[in-house]
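Instructor's aside before we start: the two examples that follow are unrelated to each other. I chose them only because their records fit on one page, so don't look for a connection. First example below.
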Amino acid sequence: MKKLAALALAAALLVTGCSSGGSDDQPEAGTLRVLAGSELADMQPVLDEAAKATGVKVKFTFTGTLEGTESLADGSLDGRYDAVWFSSNRYPAGIPDAAKRLGNQVKIMSSPVVLGLSQPVAQRLGWDAKPPTWGDIAVAAGKKEFTYGMTDPSASNSGFSALVGVASALAGSGTAIDAQQITAVTPQLTQFFSAQQLSAGSSGWLSDAFQRRATGQDPGQKVDGLINYESVLLSMNSSGKLPQPLKLIYPADGVVTADYPLTLLTSASQGARDAHQKLSDYLRTPAAQQRIMQVTQRRPVVPGVQLGQQFAPRDLVELPFPATQQAVDALLSAYFSKIRRPSRTLYVLDTSGSMEGDRIEALRSALAGLTGADTSLVGRYRQFRSREEVTMLPFNTAPGEPTTFTVPEQNPQAELAKLKDYAEGLKAGGGTAIYDSLERAYQVMEPLQAKDPDRFTSIVLMTDGQNENGSDLAGFKAAFGSLPPAMRQIPVFTVLFGEGSGDELTQVATMTGGKVFDARNVQLASVFQEIRGYQ
């Protein structure tokens, strides 16, 4: 799991061997049903070999830790899964109802979260010769001496680990950070995160976006580096797809490391327990540990296994992790409400006649959930945040009237209530002018961006059908090409719903540096929550 907080529970599965069944399938002899982080897809070659050696096949369903923790706590995994495999169990272990369902835990591999910088920037800062502290990095970030990308800590464990590591190091107490210390280091954390120019809901998409921007395939602003897993950064370097390799910076005061425990659930059957034992034993053999290093660029956890030359330094200082759920909540709350740069999002919302009935109701409910109506563990961290600017642009036969809401830092409830009332008042009717409305979105964005450019800015396009009115995709492409450079850097996250054209929405997302989200077989609300990790 490279996620500590979350992607929405994905329908996508990876199965070693060739199966593609879902988590609701009846358990099969010799098959271990595992709820896991999506980055573990890179373990497929190793698990294929494990299946041949042990007879144990792994059936993966992917999720984020927040979603997985919530499912653990409410018991919905019981009987449906045999094990969970996150990058760390630190978060679920802090929630009693989730922790009591965690059985035998076997660490398989490890990867610290570090900073990767372009070689010229690392040399200019002097960090290629002498490792800086997190405090040094924060000072340089505050002076805008470099920029970086990082995942959303409520959506990805690499981002959360980075947030924990920076906060713990800046507190300098040598013990797990608490709520009081978080308040004390908030000014330094704000300085540190002022240099973040790229956000993402997953480590994989973050590295892909960085690579596309570095090579000019993405119109988004280039950044100097990434905070991500060592394994991801090493894999990027070895891929040969970057203009030049990144210099990995290991802060002198320590890191937070993922240890990937393959964890049996207490509800698992005896057959699953036996399979878990066989698989764990195999994955911890010296040969398998060497293979994991080769395939995934993660470090071995078994003593005596020789570390590859790519891993330097070899001995790392491990920073303490928050000891209580209260401290975790305080850190995430401070990050979203005070520390990170605020966001600006424009929602282009299909309210055409085909949305009548359940579809418009799903849209109303999804938006209302983001105003605080969803009080689940995931919902608390994915709602509209203080200082955020939200614009709604409904459309049918033509673009509607845009309405902008700005959520204040103090007492945001009144503005959120207005947003909720607006969402619940959406009505369906008319045709479908997708591309006229998307062009209008950029027109609305331009003065907002010019007035306050220091925000994470994005457009979300949600439609359930084909374009019927106004300009077509070719017309939008022409219009997009004539936009000012700053406007072309605004990504469009497209939501495929109903009979919407997957091919066209993919082209829009790719051209603008965004991403496609598929809501055809999952709840629209969960997809809207997932998108929040990219805003």
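Example two begins here.
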Amino acid sequence: MYKNKITQALLLGAGMAVAATSFTATATDVTAGVKLAPKQELVRGNGTEVASLDPHKVEGVPESHVLRDLMEGLVIQDAIGNTIPGTAESWSTEDNQTFTFKIREDAKWSNGDPVTAQDFEYSFKRAADPATASPYAWYIEYTKMKNAKDVIAGKKPASELAVKAIDDRTLVIETEVPLPYFVKMMAHTTMYPVHKATVEKHGDSWTKPGNFVGNGAFVLSDWVVNEKIVLERNANYWDNKDTVIDQVTFLPIENQNAEMNRFLSGEIDITYEVPNEQFRRLAKQYPDNVVVSPNLCTYYYGFNTQKAPFDDVRVRNALSYTIDRDIVTKAILGQGQKPAYALTHSGITGFAPEAPEYAKMTQKERIAEAKKLLEEAGFGQGNPLDFTLLYNTSENHKKIAVAIQSMWKKSLGNFVNVTLENQEWKTYLDNSKQGNFDVRRAGWCADYNEASTFLAIAMTENGSNDQKYSSAVFDKAMNDAVKVAKTEAERNKFYAIAEAQLAQDMPIAPIYQYVQPRLVGTHVGGYPDQNPQDNIYSKDMFIIAE
């Protein structure tokens, strides 16, 4: 079904099924009785230039949007976030510890080769292999595949990862402990297969047009860096008969106002974002085009805990307390976002952490406590806290950074001196990884619908723990959630301990919970405005004749 109106964005509590569901509606199912446009071409804004199109070498949202069209994992999601069959037509497990997937007989690569269980075995082992240097290798460890931790650490060869092709169509994966949400995790970008012969033939150049071989609904046709990525329909895709869109173009536009103007002039069908300051006007003038969807993401500022003075918890707490989250969500954004006082999004099914003490204080009380903490840490009128706030280039991120810079200055006066610095996406990612920052803007979006998808990034050895935070209490709680807990309720008790420790140590300052506002053309059908992870598959959309 398709909707082109302002939608309520606070519907994140719905449960997400792990097993295959009966909801498998395709674009051609939905188009019954709809007059289709003769030209089925879709243009999507994508925020920034992608860092790569190798699924095992990416970590960002812009890359995932493109790869979701080019590649397909064992499972995918439907329009409301249910896990449904992808390249695997079915799966089974008796103990949530040994999982058997059956690969579709008609699954093919874009060059016509069959997609086999061996392709997935090769790909999972490639992603875990330290030689690949995948920034998301840690994700495989969190699937709890046997030997994953040792493989990623270089203590065992990748061949020891417990994923095995029994035959061309049967893939068996073993986990170290029972993991009831394991199948959900298989929809993630890191778990996409790559074509072994193509990778080995072309090396890092395998992702270039002309070399690229994928198993998704589309194949790479053209890629002009900082201008566009063009995908053409993949005639060899197993469900090509139900695909309507013939061409998808992704545009890397970092300036939201420029993107908005191109949408309004008819050049773009779906924007990546909406300019914060334009939202109310757009909602009033273009109510049929403004679509606000739920989105399991948390926006936060991360502190470099290995760098003075941010190795001092008092400094981290003071800066976090001074951020007025109500002003950010209501005055600056005003699209349905919620203030965040925890890393885990409140929409995660089955988990609701208790609000920390500072969340229960008035803003005036928080500011008073912040001044006290900074003075205790040795900062004051004669010795201000000088630091730089890093954010990736974006008008929306800039507006929030300017506002929070003003909050710090207004509330703390000469106690602080903040410099803002923006960097393009790839540089920002590199510097975040290398620890070249004081405080950085960041966000985390759920890879699956379970609290660990957020909390895992704060574990000591996690590859996305750019704050370099380390807490034995936190790590134990997270490990016990998997190794000790037997039920969801027991897991949640450990997650609550972890959240409480984060609130105490404050390696990050949670700021708000996302929603996803976009401008969507009324001629676009099939837009999944209720997928809580913002997983958009172009193959499920279509262009309506106007």
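Confidence is low (pLDDT under 50) at residues 1-24.
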